[in-house]
Amino acid sequence: MLASAFFMASELRWNSAVFRRNSLHFYPAINSYESHRENGRLWETFDPELLEREMKGIVGFEIEITSIEAAAKMSQNRSDTDYKSIVAELEKSEDQEEIQVAQWMREKRKGLFE
């Protein structure tokens, strides 16, 4: 297993320079997944004090994947109302993969959308 942490929660030196250096790793991921959403949270919208507190407990790592066991878990335990809302939000997206997920979810609960 490969492991390389970009933030060590046990690091004794905690200062704003360390925080700024390590927060750069999260920015692209948050921006990629949230920037196009109506109520998406971008890095700049978080309270700096909250970020500083939360970053102390976040550890990033890389691992080598040796096998994958897949399971289709697409909100199957959600209420009908929640499920329909999730599908509706996915269908609003401009991202084709999100639209395909919505179509797949509709197929799984056909009776809900008739």
Keywords:
single chain, 114 residues, mainly alpha, 2 domains, 5 helices, disordered N terminus
Characterise the protein shown here.
The protein is mostly helical and 114 residues long. It folds into two domains: 1-69, no CATH class; 80-113. The chain is 44% helix and 0% strand. It has five helices and no strands. The N and C termini lie far apart (48 Å).
Task: Give a brief description.
With 114 residues, this protein is mainly α.
Largest sheet: none
The general outline is extended
How much strand content do the residues show?
Answer: under 5%
The helix content, as a percent range, equals 40-55%
How many domains? Answer: 2
C-alpha-based Rg, rounded: 19 Å
Question: Structural class of the secondary elements?
Answer: mainly alpha
Number of helices: 5
Q: What are the SSEs and their pairings?
A:
Elements: H1 16-23, H2 27-34, H3 48-55, H4 80-92, H5 96-108
